[in-house]
């Protein structure tokens, strides 16, 4: 007889978010292996608690997980994760996170040499993120705008 008490979804979400944040920190530090371990641990929690799959924390975990294959020059695997993140974020109504997933898809398109699609997705991401009031929203929009500008071809006379 199993006498263990199931974890409350809030505790699971808190733990998944902590693992996601730790993976992000490790990724920035260049420790891809440790970041992957944290992401795997978070996915194991989600697998054990499927009720959290429709939550914004899961969508943000998917975005973070997509950064690993992107860093390893695997845009196909990254795109699959970003697409799933976009779908989950859209169901939660969290436009800024949907924009983040779209931005990730744009970066995948860029790596695959699909410049026009990359620009379209980056513009869509900027529209989605426009109304965000998150604490880091202004910084994210500025980074996205700079990224978008880097995608657009410069007129020939600006090379002189």
Written overview of the protein:
The chain is mostly helical and 160 residues long. The chain is built from 7 helices and no strands. The chain has helices at 9-28, 32-48, 56-71, 75-92, 95-111, 115-129, 137-151. It is globular.
The biggest beta sheet is recorded as: none
Percent of residues in β-strands: under 5%
Gap from first CA to last CA: 77 Å
Order of helices and strands: HHHHHHH
Chain-averaged pLDDT: 88
Number of strands: 0
Class from helix and strand fractions = mainly alpha
Any idea what the shape is? globular
The percent of residues in helical segments reads over 70%
* Count of alpha/pi helices: 7
Low-confidence stretches: 1-5
List keywords for this structure.
mainly alpha, 160 residues, disordered N terminus, 74% helix
Question: What would a concise description of this structure say?
Answer:
This protein is mainly α.
């Amino acid at each position: 007889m199993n006498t263990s008490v199931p974890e409350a979804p809030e505790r699971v979400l808190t733990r998944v978010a902590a693992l996601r944040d730790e993976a992000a920190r490790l990724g920035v530090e260049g420790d891809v292996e440790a970041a992957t371990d944290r992401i795997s641990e978070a996915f194991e929690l989600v697998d054990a608690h499927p009720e959290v799959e429709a939550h914004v924390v899961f969508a943000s975990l998917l975005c973070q997980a997509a950064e690993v294959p992107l860093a390893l020059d695997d845009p196909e695997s990254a795109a699959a994760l970003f697409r799933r993140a976009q779908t989950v974020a859209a169901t939660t109504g969290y436009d800024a996170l949907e924009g983040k997933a779209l931005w990730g898809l744009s970066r995948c398109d860029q790596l695959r040499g699909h410049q026009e699609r990359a620009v379209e997705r980056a513009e869509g991401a900027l529209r989605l993120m426009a109304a965000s009031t998150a604490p880091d929203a202004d910084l994210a929009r500025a980074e996205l705008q700079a990224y978008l500008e880097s995608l657009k071809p410069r007129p020939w006379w600006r090379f002189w």
